[in-house]
DNA sequence: TTAACAAAACTTGTCAACAAAAATTTCCAC
DNA sequence: GTGGAAATTTTTGTTGACAAGTTTTGTTAA
């Protein structure tokens, strides 16, 4: 009874984390806009679960700042303020260069192959003009890096920050611009392969500052969407 | 209906976050040991809330890694593995030096006075030998720094990491040693007052490595405790 | 037409009862 | 006694009903 506190990956219910993951991904891919209502009923029918599960999922999402819960008013996709947006970028620049450092230290051939494939997809999506895919892969690159860093404490933090960044870009980003330049991702990958920790860190820092430069915190914008279509990928 | 996404501080229920905070603090002060059972019934009677509130609180705590939920087996205070412990320290060394940097940049006189008072209490507790208080203040120093950094994204992260560190020290720490040297805290405060960002960051890094050196990840230990006494401060 | 108010429809919050699983105790054979 | 199985108690998971709140709709008067 003393040793079983290890291997706790996905110990909790499948259903729960599936709902959370779906919404997380939909946010990262910008298929759900900031401010969108997430009613309990819609989650229940969409995922075929009871209200309890829906509520639990929403609570989990609200803990990571992706969903905003209000008393008697239900759940909405968060709408980061400009102050919050600054804080998110600040946090990313504090954390992710160090994540890149660790990734450069710990990357193994398997990781490398995965990243190479990932970048191929990413550059393809950009070439073809598949904006949706490009956005998703672009965010996932950062998440993959966090996984390669093999730090199970920071990885969820990065995931959360990436999702919140998607919301920020959705609100304050210029509609046309790409979120991440895949060539910068390529440079980071090169540094990782060479185990050049300092370079990886500084490239990541520069990269993040470029992302930050693409948002205009005085802008506002909103658009319609379809919840069913957005979640049922 | 577009502007009301600002001022969301403590919008959620009072009850809920009170329970969470109480348990959080009890963990930081090491009044609840790792592995302790947190049954729904005990929380219900202790805080005079219904089961729903208790369950919600436990879910929130489990999202921050302080509580471990297991199917049909309820909630226990987390027992970080040695791998997890390494990851937590790694995360702290990635994040907190940058937090210290920001704090050095943004500290105002009000913050300074608060920290000075805090350090007086801390050094007093150490002099008098009030271990419990010393532990609490020591952890809270780091949390206060995060608040002074005025980054509302990183502050909760630091709080979570401090709590998890308390659990780690509870499991792997030598019983006699202090968690934090208050003289190191004093040095950091000096750097903050001088707005010396680089110094604050490097002192914080050194400080964290000292904390890390105080744990022996091959050690194990447990002790009895009283839940009522632990939570009813 | 519009503003204010009232009513209806809907959504969320809470509770109590029940089902299912785990932990504990009891009991019996050895 | 000891080990192990069965029964009991306790704890957790889930559901449904109802209460409380919010949003929408509809109506009336200025």
* Biggest β-sheet description of chain A: 3 strands, antiparallel
**Class based on secondary structure composition and strand pairing of chain A:** mainly alpha
Distance between the termini of chain A: 41 Å
Question: What is the N-to-C order of secondary-structure elements of chain A (H for helix, E for strand)?
Answer: HEHHEEHHHHHHH
Oligomeric category: homodimer
Low-confidence stretches of chain A: 1-12
Instruction: List how many beta strands of chain A DSSP finds.
Output: 3
| Percent of sequence in beta strands of chain A | under 5%
Task: Tell me the layout of helices and strands.
The structure is a homodimer of 233-residue chains.
Chain A: H1 14-28, E1 37-38, H2 40-47, H3 51-63, E2 67-70, E3 74-77, H4 82-106, H5 109-128, H6 131-148, H7 154-172, H8 182-193, H9 197-213, H10 227-231
Antiparallel strand pairs in A: 1-3, 2-3
The first copy, chain A, binds a DNA duplex (30 and 30 nucleotides) through residues 39-41, 50-53, 55, 71-74.
């Amino acid at each position: 009874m003393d040793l079983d506190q290890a291997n706790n990956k996905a110990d909790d219910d499948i259903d729960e984390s599936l709902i959370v993951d779906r919404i997380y991904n939909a946010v990262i891919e910008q298929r759900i806009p900031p401010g969108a209502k997430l009613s309990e009923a819609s989650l229940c029918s969409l995922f075929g679960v009871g209200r309890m599960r829906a509520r639990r999922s929403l609570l989990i999402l609200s803990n990571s700042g992706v969903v905003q819960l209000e008393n008697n008013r239900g759940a909405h996709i968060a709408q980061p303020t400009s102050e919050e947006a600054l804080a998110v970028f600040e946090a990313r620049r504090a954390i992710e260069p160090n994540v890149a450092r660790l990734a450069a230290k710990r990357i193994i051939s398997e990781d490398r192959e995965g990243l190479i494939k990932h970048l191929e997809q990413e550059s393809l999506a950009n070439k073809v003009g598949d904006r949706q895919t490009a956005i998703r892969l672009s965010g996932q690159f950062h998440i993959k890096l966090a996984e390669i860093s093999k730090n199970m404490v920071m990885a969820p933090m990065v995931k959360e920050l990436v999702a919140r960044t998607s919301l920020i870009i959705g609100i304050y980003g210029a509609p046309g611009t790409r979120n991440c330049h895949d060539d910068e991702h390529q440079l980071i990958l090169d540094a990782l392969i060479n185990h050049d920790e300092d370079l990886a860190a500084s490239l990541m820092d520069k990269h993040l500052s470029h992302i930050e430069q693409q948002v205009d915190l005085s802008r506002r914008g909103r658009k319609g969407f379809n919840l069913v279509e957005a979640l049922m990928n």
